[in-house]
Amino acid sequence: MAESIALPPLSGQQAALSDQLVQILIEAIHANGPMRFSEYMHRCLYEPQLGYYVNGLDKLGSDGDFITAPELSDDFAHGMARQSAEILSAIGGGDLLEFGGGTGRLAVDLLLELERLGVMPDHYYLLDVSGELRQRQQQLIAGQLPQHLVSRVHWVNGFVEDFRGVAVANELFDAFPVEQFCIEQGAARVVSVDFQDGRFQTTLRDDESVSAYVAALQAEIGQPFAEGFRSEYCPLMRGWWQSLAESMTCGAILVCDYGSERRSYYSPRRGSGSLRCFFRHTVNANPLIYQGVQDITANVDFTALAEAAVAAGLELEGFTTMSDFLLSLGALDQLQKKVDGLDEHERFRVTGKFKQLMLPEEMGERFLVAGFSKGVQPALTGFSGSDMSRLL
Ligand SMILES: C[S@@+](CC[C@H](N)C(=O)[O-])C[C@H]1O[C@@H](n2cnc3c(N)ncnc32)[C@H](O)[C@@H]1O
Q1: Could you give all domains of the chain from N- to C-terminal order, each with its CATH number?
Q2: Which of 123, 245, 339, 353 could potentially form a cystine with 312 if both were Cys, beta carbons 3.0 to 4.6 Å apart?
Q3: Arithmetic mean of pLDDT, 139-153
């Protein structure tokens, strides 16, 4: 949740980190020419030691730049736990694998709830590209879980071979670098980042892979994009799902993120795309500033995601809003139990967070959940209330 207001200034430490990254970007552009936007975004987010997700500055939570569902309220983890328990029971047990674990909050709350439900995964694997966040996860997990649960948690550097169980990915795909394109004189051109006259600026170039992707999009949507239309797509999607599906023998994956199905993603109303930047709970549309200290993110095209998953051999189990997913899994009953016996002040605080998570105009309908499976027929109660799969 962020407001569009003037950007807060950088601290000395932030400015120093950003300056170093800027120098590296300028040198790369001088050496190789304008940089495709996807590479620029990747380096702003993941450049070793300096990128946004690896440089050690606070990002998630009230002291950071944005707040995520598991950071906001354990109601999210509790719903995920109930869905995971159902799948684990259906397949006779297995492991959990979390992609992009952030601070480790979801891992802590999920494991505690799974224990309460009496359905423990054999292992809880965490896979995160950020070494710095991995350390934060280790600290939180060691500090907040009893030893018998800590011992189930393992950090991995890649997909888990012969994985059997439930994988979860909350706000993973919005952190994947995107390619940006713009329609100029009727043709799709790739947005690239150049450094000229002492400042970063974007330029448009021809690119075969981008033209082919956009041509396929327009053919599917049934009409050409208007002059000046600008949007994004994620080039990593297919490869990621292929690797996941190959590593999984049996189980399911639950994906939660902001975004939409394709028609709405590329609707003429969204003619400037969804790329945006977060810094200290403010939002702006300029990725060419505050390199390494502001988050750069884009909405997820859930149709592209589902196509990639299905092409890789997974089955689509359902697609719904986060609020419907959690409600189907009993979120209201759980809330009632949670607030029973609380004093008025605490009750107000707990229900306030629940509302922020669930109300449509807050996170409830801006976040969507998609489920995919392999080799099992799990009953996914999370999609029993409403399933919008046909929209994909
Ligand atoms: C927006 S944060 C979300 C964190 C957490 N899931 C939450 O909801 O609070 C994105 C997370 O994904 C991680 N990440 C980005 N790309 C990744 C990848 N390819 N594989 C694993 N983790 C990745 C980042 O380091 C970060 O922890």
Answers
A1: 1-392 (3.40.50.12710)
A2: 245
A3: 98
CB 165 near ligand 1, within 6 Å? no
Of ligand 1's atoms, which has the minimum distance to the CA of residue 295?
1
Would the pLDDT of 58 be above 50? yes
Give the closest residue (by CA) to ligand 1 atom 18: 129
**What is residue 2's predicted lDDT score, i.e. its pLDDT?**
44
Of 104, 103, 107, residue with least CA distance to 95: 107
368 lines ligand 1 (CB under 6 A): no
Task: Report the percentage of the chain scoring pLDDT > 90.
Answer: 89
DSSP 286-343: -TTSSTTTSEEE--EEHHHHHHHHHHTT-EEEEEEEHHHHHHHTTHHHHHHHHHTT--
Q: What is the Cα Rg of the chain in Å? A: 21
Q: What is the pLDDT of residue 3?
A: 45
**Residue of 367, 273, 262 lying closest to 307 (CA atoms):** 262
Nearest CA to ligand 1 atom 1: 171
